[in-house]
Design brief:
Strand 2 and strand 3 form a beta hairpin. The chain has a single domain, classed as 2-Layer Sandwich (Double Stranded RNA Binding Domain). Helix 2 crosses helix 4. It is an alpha+beta fold. It has 4 helices and 4 strands; from the N terminus they run ααβαβββα.
Length: 172
């Protein structure tokens, strides 16, 4: 018990010694306000299809909607594509499980007359859903829930990469 308590008390010192810094509390900014301001200045461009709408809504919640009224200085352009693989079959050959892989290619650009590319990347996530026997409503709900989870995960990944890039560039 004492070893556990000692390790718990020493862990902040170990983290401080390794150079660990929380993402949203950079350098000399006590509360990460500058980084939050940069993220709020990112305007998310329209994304087509239903998955694109879900992704755009999730990105907006993490970026421009965090501080309403912030003037946009950047534009995030995202393209979404997905692939699906069958993972399970019944003995009669009917499909019981499908795995979906989503890839989102994104580009962060500055707004204005001299547009500059700041960051380009691809976020990939995968998830699966079941197709229960003769329960079509349950299959639809399962697929929709999987799509929402995927888009939330992709949005979180993209927002984290943007935050890391702003921090790396020293703009926040």
């Amino acid at each position: 018990m004492t070893t556990r308590r000692t390790l718990l008390l020493a862990s902040p010192l170990l983290l401080a010694g390794c150079g660990f810094r929380p993402l949203y509390r950079p350098g000399n900014m006590p509360s990460g306000e500058a980084l939050s301001a940069e993220l709020a200045a990112v305007q998310v461009a329209r994304i087509g299809e239903r998955q694109g709408q879900l992704l755009r809504r999730a990105l907006m919640a993490r970026l421009e909607d965090t501080r309403p009224g912030t003037a946009p200085r950047y534009e995030l352009r995202v393209g979404v594509r997905n692939d699906s693989d069958v993972q399970g079959y019944r003995t009669d050959g009917a499909i019981t499980r499908i795995r979906v892989t989503v890839s989102a290619d994104f580009v962060l650009m500055t707004l204005g007359t001299e547009q500059e590319e700041i960051l380009r990347g691809t976020a990939r996530k995968f998830d699966a859903f079941n197709l229960p026997d003769l329960q079509f409503f349950a299959a639809d709900i399962s697929r929709e829930a999987m799509e929402r989870r995927l888009m939330e995960d992709v949005a979180e990944d993209i927002a984290r990469r943007l935050a890391l890039e702003f921090r790396r560039r020293g703009e926040a």
